[in-house]
Amino acid sequence: xxxxxxxxxxxxxxxxxxxxxxxxxxxxxxxxxxxxxxxxxxxxxxxxxxxxxxxxxxxxxxxxxxxxxxxxxxxxxxxxxxxxxxxxxxxxxxxxxxxxxxxxxxxxxxxxxxxxxxx
Length: 119
Fold this sequence. Notes:
Shape: elongated
Number of strands: 0
Number of domains: 2
Number of helices: 5
CATH superfamily of the largest domain: IscX-like
CATH topology of the largest domain: Arc Repressor Mutant, subunit A
Strand content: under 5%
CATH architecture of the largest domain: Orthogonal Bundle
Largest sheet: none
Structural class: mainly alpha
Helix content: 40-55%
């Protein structure tokens, strides 16, 4: 004989299947906590995400001119980002250069350049 699932479990299963469109706060919190524990829906940044990284640095350090910082400083700030999941050492300096170049363009309010590093 199978055991009947609780109402909470039923709601969770239905939400996972897409059956329920609006859920109560308790169930929503459960899914948010579960997704966080499993790392679902969280963006992982890599060195090739130079535009996104530059935008984060631009927002995080609005009073620091990007031309005044070293590549090593940029590297340290990039690897300290919570979303960054790549190797602490970029495979090539071109990644740091691209991040800093795009950050400089953002600093000067220029148009977004085309990302040539992504495949």
